[in-house]
Write a structure and sequence with these properties.
The protein is an alpha+beta fold and 164 residues long. Helices cover 44% and strands 24% of the residues. It has 5 helices and 4 strands. Strands 1-2-3-4 form a 4-stranded antiparallel β-sheet. Helix 1 crosses helix 2. The protein starts with a helix and ends in a 7-residue tail after the last strand. Keywords: Membrane, Transmembrane, Transmembrane helix.
């Protein structure tokens, strides 16, 4: 998990609220502060964070890890921000991208060629958390002379099959 300023602010808010609650039970600082410190991560990850995810698309960010990318495709969106911020993949060759990300999931369509473009590989990033999200994220890796020139993201509308 990447420690972001937003995460730190949320943890401080949860700590203060936990401290205020524990302080209503017992006024002794030598009990309330350690107990609040112990309870804060549990309250954050099991109560506060799930509520945030229901009403927003906030999610924790993770550093890019090729092994996690392959094993947990539904959580790729957590690594995408790090890939973009650090230009992790820009300048890397096609064989190395195939090793890091795996074989492309689909190719982009090129209207001029009236066919798929072998220089635009696409990978699904998964669905961002949130109760009101109806789109899946996708990442397009654009090659120029067999090296990564750019990485783009776009959203795919999810379709619900009403027949089931």
């Amino acid at each position: 998990m990447i420690i972001t300023p937003f995460l730190v602010v949320l943890l401080i808010i949860v700590f203060v609220l936990t401290y205020l609650f524990v302080n209503t039970i017992d006024k002794r600082l030598w009990i309330t502060i350690p107990l609040s410190l112990i309870l804060t991560p549990f309250i954050y990850f099991y109560a506060f964070y799930p509520l945030i995810n229901i009403f927003s698309s906030y999610h924790h960010e993770k550093y890019f890890d090729s092994e996690v990318w392959h094993k947990n495709p539904s959580f790729r969106y957590e690594m995408y921000d790090n890939i973009i911020a650090t230009d992790t993949l820009v300048g890397i060759s096609k064989p190395k991208i195939k090793e890091l990300l795996g074989t492309y999931e689909w190719l982009s369509w090129d209207d001029e060629k009236d066919g798929h473009d072998a220089n635009r590989w696409n990978y699904g990033l998964g669905i961002l958390p949130g109760a009101f999200n109806s789109k899946s994220e996708a990442m397009e890796v654009v090659f120029d002379n067999d090296t990564v020139r750019a990485i783009n993201t776009y959203k795919i509308t999810l379709k619900v099959d009403a027949k089931k």
